[in-house]
Amino acid sequence: MGNLIKVLGKDLENCPHFFLDFENAQPTEAETAVWNQVNAVLEEAQTILAELQSYTGAGQEIREAIQNPGDLRLQERAWSAVCPLVAKLKRFYEFSLRLENALRSLLEALTSPPYAPTQHLEREQALAKQFAEILHFTLSFDELKMTNPAIQNDFSYYRRTISRNRINNLQLDAESEVNNEMANRMSLFYAEATPMLKTLSNATTKFVSENKTLPIEDTTDCLSTMACVCRVMLETPEYRSRFTNTETLLFCMRVMVGVIILYDHVHPVGAFAKTSKIDMKGCIKVLKDQPSTSTEGLLNALRYTTRHLNDDTTSKQIRALLQ
């Protein structure tokens, strides 16, 4: 299988183990059409992350405008500062829609008959890598968003100003950029603690519900297999040593957590039940064995963005590991 190596000697019979070459996988002829479509979206992902990382907001201008409501100059200054930022937030939101479509294309490719999900991951490593890259981007975006309150502050000020209708000449320009319907959708998006993850979770759930002839296990097995792949690569020194880039370790951790969360949202009983095909104890242990600076955000994602952690079916040991 080329770069795919079976990992032997593991104790979970219900969980296939593979080594996927996340660094070097290239599309085969059969993968090219979907790969090109998804790649066009992923090419923009780093730009989106860089813009979000440098997003400082218009906090000072907004504070001065609020403290001096009668000073038209300060009102216009705040408005002029906020409008380009809202245009940027609109771009982020629109990118989430493109990412949703890319995920759907990958799910269709990686779960379509006649192959089982595990066979798809063996045969189509380049698409599996793209799926991983979407998850990596998603968790990176949401970590940055969660630590930047300026995003919601700026957008709230923008909407309040629009509704008060105080700066009519500038409002018209802004409304053509972000109309009321778009502003409502953006509000729902940014109100989520992890908006990109919520987008992917909803898209995966929708994919399952719309493809009624496709067993839900085909989708969840794709996710659980990817989680196992990442866990084994992280916990096995001989496979870790194959990575030429140290960033690939963080990449694997993010992907593992991302597919766990998706699995937990899509599977009827979730990722934490005893019947789950994901070794949650093993996955959490792998995260805890890494430096806390690189994993605390990922552990928080498991604590706060999963659906079934607090169910009665979750063992006390798993809950204790996430305390």
Explain how this protein is built.
InterPro entries: CYRI, CYRIA/CYRIB_Rac1-bd. The chain is 70% helix and 1% strand. It is mainly alpha-helical and 323 residues long. It has a two-stranded antiparallel ribbon with strand order 1-2. The longest helix has 40 residues, at 72-111.
Instruction: Categorize the overall geometry.
Output: globular
For the sheet with most strands, the description reads: 2 strands, antiparallel
Number of helices: 15
Output mean pLDDT: 86
Structural class: mainly alpha
Order of helices and strands: EEHHHHHHHHHHHHHHH
Helix amount, in percent? 55-70%
- In whole angstroms, the N-to-C terminal distance is 40 Å
Q: Which band does the percent of strand residues land in?
A: under 5%
Protein name: CYRIA/CYRIB Rac1 binding domain-containing protein
InterPro entries: CYRI, CYRIA/CYRIB_Rac1-bd
Family: Belongs to the CYRI family.
Keywords: Lipoprotein, Membrane
Relevant terms:
mainly alpha, 1% strand, two-stranded antiparallel ribbon, 323 residues, 15 helices
Quick summary:
With 323 residues, the chain is mostly helical. It is 70% helix and 1% strand.
Topology:
Elements (H helix, E strand, L loop, with lengths): L4 E2 L11 E2 L12 H22 L5 H9 L4 H40 L5 H7 L1 H22 L3 H15 L3 H10 L2 H12 L3 H16 L5 H20 L1 H4 L6 H20 L13 H9 L3 H13 L11 H6 L2
Antiparallel strand pairs: 1-2
